[in-house]
C-alpha cells in the first residue's frame, strides 16, 4: 500500500529550508518528509532522522535514505533528540525540526502490530516492540480504576466506566489477546454511538497513548527541540488529535511569552520575559484535495514556530 506524507508541501514551506542547513525529522516513518527535505539540501546540508519503530529502520525506504552520505537514521524515540544531536556535536545548531505525531500508516496497516480495530491481530500497540509492556499485558493486570483514568484522560471517553467494568469482567473469564476481542467488547459496552466513528476509536487511542507514554514523550521532545534550534531555526509539528494539539499549542504559547501575566501594572519593558520561540502564522489543516486522496490527513493540524535570536 502506498503511503503519503501528510501536508508535505506545507511542511517544506514552513521549514524554510536552507540548502546548507542541518535538519531533524523526529518521525521518519517511511521517509516521505525526510526525502523531500533531503532533495532541497546541498552537498553541505545534513539530515538526521529518528524513529522508535525498528521496522521503519529496516524498510526499503530507510535503505535508500541511508545510501546518501548526508543522512543518518537512529533507532530511538523523539525524546532522545538531545542525546543524538550531542553525539554528533550539532546541539544548538539545528535549522529545522519536524514532528509528525501519532501512529504511522504502516503501523495501522499491519495487523500484527495491534494498533487498528479494523484488522484483527495480537493486541500489542507498542511503537517499539523491543521494549515495554504490550496492551495485552497491560489489560491483564491493570486495575479497573486505572483503566477508567486512562480512557477518560487519553481518550476523552464518556463511557469509560462501562468499558472498564466490562474489561475486568471479561478478563476474569479469559484473557483479552486480540484487537477484535477488545473492539467487540467496547462496542457492546457503549449504548450510544457517534456518527462516522467506530465505538472503539477512543479506547484504542487511549490505551495506545498510555502504552507508549506518547504525551510525556511529546512534552520532553518539544523542550529539547526548542533548545536544539539555532536562531531563526523552525519547529514544525503535525498533530492528529486534540490531546496532542492542545499540548503543542500550550507549549508554543508558553515559549512565545504569550502566557505572561504581569500582575500589577505598570511594568517596565525590560521586565517582560521574552520567549525563546516566535509562533509563525496560524494552525494549518490539510486541504480538501489532500484529504480526498489521503483520508488520514483529515484530522491533521500543523503548527509552526521559529527560534528567536
UniProtKB/TrEMBL annotation:
MF terms per GO, please?
Answer: rRNA (cytosine-N4-)-methyltransferase activity
Where is the chain membrane-spanning? none
Spell out the reaction equation it catalyses: cytidine(1402) in 16S rRNA + S-adenosyl-L-methionine = N(4)-methylcytidine(1402) in 16S rRNA + S-adenosyl-L-homocysteine + H(+)
According to its UniProt record, this protein's enzyme class is transferase
Q: Which UniProt keywords apply?
A: Cytoplasm, Methyltransferase, rRNA processing, S-adenosyl-L-methionine, Transferase
Subcellular location(s) of the protein: Cytoplasm
Q: What is its EC number?
A: 2.1.1.199
Q: Which domain of life is it from?
A: Bacteria
Chain positions recorded as S-adenosyl-L-methionine binding sites: 31-33, 51, 78, 100, 107
> Does the keyword field hold Transmembrane helix?
no
Q: Which Pfam families match?
A: Methyltransf_5
InterPro entries attached to this UniProt entry: RsmH (IPR002903), SAM-dep_MeTrfase_MraW_recog (IPR023397), SAM-dependent_MTases_sf (IPR029063)
Q: What does this protein do?
A: Specifically methylates the N4 position of cytidine in position 1402 (C1402) of 16S rRNA.
Which PANTHER family does the record associate with it? 12S RRNA N4-METHYLCYTIDINE METHYLTRANSFERASE, S-ADENOSYL-METHYLTRANSFERASE MRAW
* Xref: HAMAP family: 16SrRNA_methyltr_H (MF_01007)
What family does this belong to? Belongs to the methyltransferase superfamily. RsmH family.
Q: What is the recorded name of this protein? A: Ribosomal RNA small subunit methyltransferase H
Organism expressing this protein natively: Methylocucumis oryzae
What is the taxonomic lineage of the source species? Bacteria, Pseudomonadati, Pseudomonadota, Gammaproteobacteria, Methylococcales
Q: Which gene encodes it?
A: rsmH
Amino acid at each position: 500500500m502506498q503511503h503519503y506524507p501528510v501536508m508535505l508541501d506545507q511542511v517544506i514551506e514552513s521549514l524554510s529550508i536552507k540548502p546548507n542547513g542541518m535538519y531533524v525529522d523526529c518521525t521518519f516513518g517511511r521517509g516521505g518528509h525526510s526525502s523531500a527535505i533531503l532533495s532541497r539540501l546541498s552537498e553541505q546540508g545534513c539530515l538526521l532522522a529518528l524513529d522508535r519503530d525498528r521496522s521503519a529502520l529496516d524498510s526499503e525506504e530507510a535503505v535508500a535514505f541511508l545510501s546518501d552520505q548526508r543522512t543518518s537514521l537512529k533507532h530511538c524515540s523523539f525524546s532522545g533528540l538531545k542525546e543524538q544531536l550531542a553525539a554528533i556535536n550539532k546541539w544548538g545548531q539545528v535549522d529545522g525540526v519536524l514532528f509528525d505525531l501519532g501512529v504511522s500508516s504502516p503501523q495501522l496497516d499491519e495487523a500484527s502490530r495491534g494498533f487498528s480495530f479494523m484488522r484483527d491481530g495480537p493486541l500489542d500497540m507498542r511503537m517499539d516492540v523491543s521494549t515495554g509492556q504490550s496492551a495485552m499485558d497491560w489489560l491483564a493486570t491493570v486495575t479497573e480504576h486505572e483503566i477508567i483514568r486512562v480512557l477518560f484522560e487519553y481518550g476523552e471517553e464518556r463511557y469509560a466506566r462501562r468499558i472498564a467494568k466490562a474489561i475486568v469482567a471479561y478478563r476474569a473469564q479469559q484473557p483479552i489477546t486480540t484487537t477484535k476481542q477488545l473492539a467487540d467488547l467496547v462496542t457492546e459496552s457503549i449504548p450510544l454511538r457517534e456518527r462516522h466513528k467506530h465505538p472503539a476509536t477512543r479506547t484504542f487511542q487511549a490505551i495506545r497513548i498510555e502504552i507508549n507514554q506518547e504525551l510525556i514523550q511529546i512534552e520532553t521532545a518539544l523542550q529539547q527541540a526548542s533548545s536544539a534550534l539555532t536562531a531563526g531555526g523552525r519547529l514544525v509539528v503535525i498533530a492528529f488529535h486534540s490531546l496532542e494539539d492542545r499540548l503543542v499549542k500550550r507549549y508554543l504559547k508558553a515559549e512565545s511569552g504569550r502566557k505572561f501575566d504581569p500582575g500589577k501594572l505598570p511594568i517596565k519593558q525590560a521586565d517582560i520575559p521574552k520567549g525563546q520561540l516566535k509562533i509563525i502564522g496560524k494552525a494549518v489543516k490539510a486541504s480538501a484535495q489532500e484529504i480526498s486522496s489521503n483520508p488520514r490527513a483529515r484530522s491533521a493540524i500543523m503548527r509552526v514556530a521559529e527560534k528567536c535570536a
